[in-house]
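Comment thread on ticket #2218

A.B. wrote:
> Attaching the input chain for the structure job we discussed in standup.
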Amino acid sequence: MELWFSEPHTPDVKLSIRVDKQLYSGESDLQRIDVFESKEFGRILVLDGYIMLTEKDEFIYHEMIVHVPMAVHPKVQKVLVIGAGDGGAVRELAKYPEIEQIDLVEIDKQVIQVSKEYLPKVSCALDDERLYIFYEDGLKFVRSRENEYDLIIVDSTDPFGPGEGLFTKEFYGNCYKALKEDGIMVNQHESPFYEADATACMRAHKRIVESFPVSRVYQAHIPTYPSGHWLFGFASRKYHPVHDLEGEKWLERGIETRYYTPRLHEGAFCLPAYVEKLLRKVEIRG
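C.D. wrote:
> Ran it. Output below, let me know if you need it in another format.
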């Protein structure tokens, strides 16, 4: 008997992956957590029935949410990561010796525990000595911070359930306040392809544009995410993601990546016409 995991993308579309076995299934106070083993995608982390990552394509997401801002900001020393209990974003940040402190805020302790046990390739930097883990609500955590971080990475789940509060105007405004005067915030911005996802994308973009003087959107191709076309938000109090890109300096660091390059960085901000049209609908300034 074959075992398949299926995730609905719309009422009429679903992604199905044949799995060899289920390695873990449990309920935290907030959500259901599952880990599957598959031939094609390796291990798969699923929260409340939705794929958070697979071992085969997680590098795309984590490299793009970390290296894009790191190649723009000239001196990142203190970073706040909200969500990201799987450890993938921390793994990429740990490649930068100049970073002095990483604060990771994860509301669900069990996600970190499961990731450490079942996803060692992703969670391998969760014991980094520069990392401080806070098990609390990211929305509440960031309220009490002011002029503290060079970079904030919002690696949230989708805009419902435990991650819902990380898509509000209040949250983005508090992130602005928590950043230093030249700070950068990046966030996962949903997919523009299916109608419900596009609506969430537009809503988030509108709220970020209202909070930050610089707000741009970039893209990546992530096969196991809905439609495979995924967006990220880049918001800054000072830096432009392309004009202030220091590609040569980033290359001199010698950081090994499988997806990100400075050349791809520039191209990622060149969006398809239908995406530009979606974003323009909610922008109050260019």
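A.B. wrote:
> Thanks. Noting for the ticket: Residues 159-165 have pLDDT under 50 and may be disordered.
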